[in-house]
Amino acid sequence: MCRWIAYSGTPVLLSHVLFEPQHNLIDQSLRSRMGVETTNGDGFGIGWYTQDLTTPAILRDVGPAWNNRNLQEVAHHVRSGLFFAHIRATTGTAVQQTNCHPFRRDRWLWMHNGAISEFHRLKRELALAVDPALYSDIEGSTDSELMFFLALTFGLTEDPPGAVARMAGLVEETGHRHGVQHPLQMTVAVADGERLWAFRYSSEGSSRSLFYSTRLDALRALHSDAAFLRGIGDETRLVVSEPLGDLPGSWNEVPESSYGIVQPGGDALHAFQPRS
């Protein structure tokens, strides 16, 4: 499986989030506490939005995140108010750059932790459901990227929650036809440059870990001596596979079978169920 971070809020240097917290993403790549694997070294990727770009930039590599000099260089010089970071542990597909997250199409970013069970058996049927106008843009061989293109096919750009629900419904229906008891395991982050959606769902009702950060005004009241909280706006949020530290009151578990929206003016949390 994998570990990931999604950040939305006050523009900061990527390094402040990726390297400075106690249990940062680099530490998680070597010593994951909640993942299926302790080590996540089968590639990494970051994707970020800036005010000057209509589409997000991405940097992906097949090497482990803990010793990549390009990641260090970019993270210490790029400032963004909405970015993704992902470290990969393959579930069977090749270790190659096109299989590293996040995936991008136009202004949209997508990253995933989990798996489609028995993907090698279901892949062809699922791939045939992708809009032919989109199919040629699939570059890699992962279930994660195929899930992205299925969501795009089902209307991600107009209705992200509905599109992800229809994608999940198709995966489950296809899996059940092939005798797969629990076809889908996912925590997914998707963004359009202004809003961030995060989904937690699994067919077996026991999904991979996912947490969101507490409101900054509440954190300041709890930890008035924490210097790093002073320069960040109240609407700043992080959604993470694992908490980045042990600061009491900082992290809340995303409920099972739910999704959240992080957006200017107010966040929201909703129940999530696949759709036919």
Task: Profile the largest sheet.
Answer: 7 strands, antiparallel
Report the end-to-end length measured between terminal Cα atoms.
Answer: 27 Å
Structural class: alpha+beta
Number of strands: 13
CATH topology: Glutamine Phosphoribosylpyrophosphate, subunit 1, domain 1
* Element-level helix/strand string: EHHEEHEEEHHHHEEEHEEEE
By CATH, the architecture is named 4-Layer Sandwich
Q: What is the CATH class name?
A: Alpha Beta
Number of helices: 8
Kindly describe this structure.
With 276 residues, the protein is of the alpha+beta class. The chain has a single domain (3-271), classed as Aminohydrolase, N-terminal nucleophile (Ntn) domain (Glutamine Phosphoribosylpyrophosphate, subunit 1, domain 1), CATH 3.60.20.10. Helix content is 25%, strand content 28%. The protein has helices spanning 14-18, 25-31, 69-75, 119-127, 132-135, 143-153, 160-177, 216-222; strands at residues 3-13, 44-49, 57-61, 79-87, 103-105, 108-116, 184-191, 196-202, 211-213, 237-240, 251-253, 258-262, 268-271. Strands 3-2-4-1-10-9-11 form a seven-stranded antiparallel β-sheet. The longest helix is centred in the middle third of the chain and has 18 residues, at 160-177. It is globular. The two termini are 27 Å apart. Residues 2-276 form the Glutamine amidotransferase type-2 domain. One of its GO terms (molecular function) is transferase activity. It holds the Pfam family GATase_4. This is Class II glutamine amidotransferase. InterPro entries: EgtC-like (IPR026869), Gamma-glu_amide_hydrolase (IPR052373), GATase_2_dom (IPR017932), Ntn_hydrolases_N (IPR029055).
